Amino acid sequence: MTPLEQAQRKMADADVAQGAIDVFTDFYRQLEAGATGLVREDDVDPLTGIDRAHDVHADLQAQRDAAAVTAIIKLNGGLGTSMGMDRAKTLLPVRDGLTFLDVIAGQVKHVRAELGVALPLLFMHSFRTRDDSLAALAPHGLEVDGLPLDFLQNREPKLRSDDLTPVEWPADPTLEWCPPGHGDLYTALLASGVLDALLDAGYRYASVSNSDNLGAAPDPAMMAWFAGTGAPYAAEVCRRTPADVKGGHLVVRRSDGRLVLRETAQTAPEDAAAATDLQRHPYFHTNNLWFDLRQVRDTLRERDGVLGLPLIRNHKTVDPADPSSPEVIQIESAMGAAVEVFDGATAIEVDRSRFLPVKTTNDLLLLRSDVFDVGADSRLRAQVDPKPLVDLDKRFYSRIADFDARIPHAPSLVDADSLGVEGDWHFGRDVVVTGSTRLTDDGTAQQVPAGARLG
């Protein structure tokens, strides 16, 4: 049995959908052939001349008409492992006891009530995030039109880097598996039957974003914009700042003029300087995207379920916590890479307010503070621009349990320029930070007393 056949058998024995096995097989053959997935700077031009959301205007009826045939899809498969969590990050409280999932539910229910539309909300879960997330969502009663509230992301075996066989790790067999990246969205939609169910129920468009990005609220004006473009696919991009140079960005392939997503992992070392040049490549990809459900289904059927997304070859160890464990390759793809699949795909520049991802406790502290306000529509709006910079000591604040123990009540940051914390500091209630403040480490646990003013 060849290494590929071993991987295929392992997936079939684990009841992975045949469509996902077919996509994995396509990527595996690319890997065998030596594909790197690199997007060379010499082969692309910068993205220019795109629409701006600031200029988008649509009357109420156009918004209602578009919202009536749009579904909201949220990616909710990630565990908050970087914060020391073993469950969905979106179960964390953000504001006043409300979790990410509560805020998302509130945003969707507001649009439903305002426009009188069903606006289905669906989550793509992983096996590890599904049960807890559905239990947390149940009180909101979000299901509509007989559609499911979620569908499952697929999984695939990690491959030994030396011979591309499925890795074996008896110490924890769950570590033998990995998600295929969020490019699995299209395969999972088709294999689960959700894509057909949405179309059969009369829905035409999908708005997709990460669940930890609360800025990507359902926007009826943008729904009207996308419906009016007639495009099969659209990506939201933002102006880059020096903090965004590591993210994926769109470029234009010279050979055929198509938009292409170039992730950091697809950038050759010799192209790094050009790829991170804010003047040459001024936009980054927010991972908020739009697509025409019918065109996605038709394209998947034409290609026997394999969109043909570019390979992302990710080198890891089988146990991420053990650098001495065997090196493996994880075959991944990015959902935003589908931009190159569809004729007429486009992009739109959006305001930074649509990009509020929470990747660290620095981000979480900003959202919990008075820098943001939550409106009746459940949207988070920054009260100041620019937002203060937060830099918490990773030794004491990177894990959510440690962060919550030391900062149980977010300080006021609305009048702050920056807050840097070095060392083990515990914050009391009603702390106010102004200007640029940096707390230093004296080697002991220190206290910021309740009501203190820093700055």
Principal-axis shape: globular
- Indicate the radius of gyration in whole angstroms: 23 Å
Physical arrangement of strands within the biggest beta sheet: 2-18-12-15-11-3-6-7
Number of strands: 26
**What's the mean pLDDT score?**
95
Q: How many domains would you count in the coordinates? A: 2
Q: What's the end-to-end separation, in Å?
A: 67 Å
Q: Which fold does the CATH topology of the largest domain refer to?
A: Spore Coat Polysaccharide Biosynthesis Protein SpsA, Chain A
CATH architectural type of the largest domain = Alpha-Beta Complex
The total count of helices amounts to 13
pLDDT under 50 segments (min length 5)? Answer: none
State the secondary-structure class: alpha/beta
| Percentage beta strand | 25-35%
Residues in helix, %:
25-40%
Description:
This protein is α/β, with parallel strands linked by helices. Helices cover 25% and strands 25% of the residues. It has helices at 3-13, 18-32, 60-67, 100-115, 130-137, 185-192, 194-200, 220-229, 272-275, 293-302, 361-368, 394-397, 400-406; strands at 44-46, 51-52, 70-76, 93-95, 98-99, 121-125, 150-152, 156-157, 159-160, 177-178, 205-210, 233-239, 249-253, 259-262, 283-292, 312-317, 327-332, 346-349, 372-374, 380-382, 389-392, 412-421, 425-427, 432-439, 446-448, 453-454. The strands form eight sheets. The protein has an eight-stranded mixed beta sheet, with helices on both faces. Strands 21-22-24-26 form a four-stranded parallel beta sheet. It has a three-stranded antiparallel beta sheet with strand order 1-13-14, with no helix packed on it. Helix 5 (130-137) links the parallel strand 6 (121-125) and strand 7 (150-152).
